[in-house]
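Handout, page 2. Input:
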Amino acid sequence: MRFLILLFFIIFLNAEKIDEYNVKVFVLDNGDLQIIENILYDFGKNKRHGIFRNIPLNHNKIELLSIYQDGKAAEYNILYKRGEVIYKIGNKNVLLTNKHQYQINYVIKKTVFEKDDIHNVISLNAIGTGWKVPIYNIQIDVLLPQELIKNKFIVYFGKNGSTDILKYNKITPTHYQILKSHLNPNEGITFDIIFDKNLIEAVETIDNKWAYLFLIIYSLGLYLYYKQHKIPNFSISPQYYPPKDLNILQASIIIDQELNDEDISVAILDMAVRGYLQIKKVGEHIVLEKLKSSDSLSKEEKILFDALFDEDDIVTLAYNNTISFVKFYNRLQLAISNIKSSLYKWGVEEGYFKENLFIGRTKFVLTAFIPLAIMIIVSIVQLSNFYDNYIAVVAFWFFLILMSLITFDSSSSLAAKIVFSFQIVIILWVLNYLEIPFLNPVSITFFNLIPLWFVYRHLNLYTKKGIEKLKYLLGFKEFLLRVEKDKLVQLLKENPNYLDETLPYAVLFGVDHWFDFYKEFNVNSNIKDLNKTIYHDMVHSMNYISNYSSKSTSSGSGGSSGGGSGGGGGGSW
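Output:
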């Protein structure tokens, strides 16, 4: 029994508490609050550097005026974390015990909010529910301007969310006093001042309705544009042979009006089938070996072939930081760019497209983005009134979304999709960390990028001739997807090279089990040692190399205790 009494006595001596907590609140003419907190903090026998005071920011702006410790200007640091400001008061080289007096003088701006159709409210969590120690001898003095003599004053106390009412003293028509002998840890006091709307104007709240209206109108406009310009519906009939007047690169851009990383890999496979190079696996790496010159290749194929074998007849597709690899990467990227330019020009000259694919898409994006950009700027200006750092956040967010869309659009590889998803996660994490609501005018406006991206990806730049060629290719795709073995045997009898001639198209259309037919029908070919596993390893290597550049350069309003402005809590450190 004596031991328990002694243990209790030791714990009591070491327990921290606040002996006095006095708050003066001056309500200014514009509704801002100047607050002076006097805190007599008892560390007991514990050795501490000082205290910290954390105040939620909510939609408010806080201006610190001064901090004193024991009557003298205090040392302190200001930290921002999870939507709150933290004043860390004390000297890290000095330890304190027993009682010390702290005074914190600050202004909270933007505290007036709309209560209902005829009233506004100022709500202050005068003693925050975040204190982990008991608080004694509490006195809160609220001094109002003459304009707010006619008001309704309500005080709540208890844990966060409590609606228990606390009595107060009305010293004068403009002076209210709240007294409380004791608060337990995580209990606080909140008061509401409710008054006519015409006395002090409420802070403008975030209004999403215009952003939603713009989203509806903009999306509807894009839908009508898409409906008018989309690729017309047509029926297709099975085609048994690849087109004779196209090479695989030309077929690639007719299929989806673009050239991506996988199309380049298919072109390499096509040249291997025709005996210009060999694809093999040596150890863990894919190796390309030149077998003959590129003289008889088409213009675009020759650009790719010469870029692959510019310095050596054997190329290992492995990422490293050597000078020769950097040269190879730069040479390959330049070649792909030149191939795209050449194909886009060819498509117009041959009458398959109405205009250059790059120019047509750029014109659409610039035209469609003008109203979107105006709405984004208006939204940013509106939200900058609520968040000091919002413009920087939005700029960061917009950059990431734009880069994500470019990444997602530029490649259909799994790696690109992972990067895209990771960037979106970063955006959401930043917004959550800064406690910025996800649904706000800027984010809602950004949702317009989704229909914009969809229409961009489905622009119809085909001519009538281009549509006819597309129908033929889709008919051939339909056959490759549904071919029966008996029909394939018949075609091989007619043309022993049928598998070789159709393999690149089968892979282009995603029918990669075409590789298995070589073994099943015992077909002799230039690629008899190549299987779909080795091919997919090559695609992975090419995509990995294509991403070399990015890898190398990466580096509320009252109504309860704890509600309203201010609040938070603190403790010792």
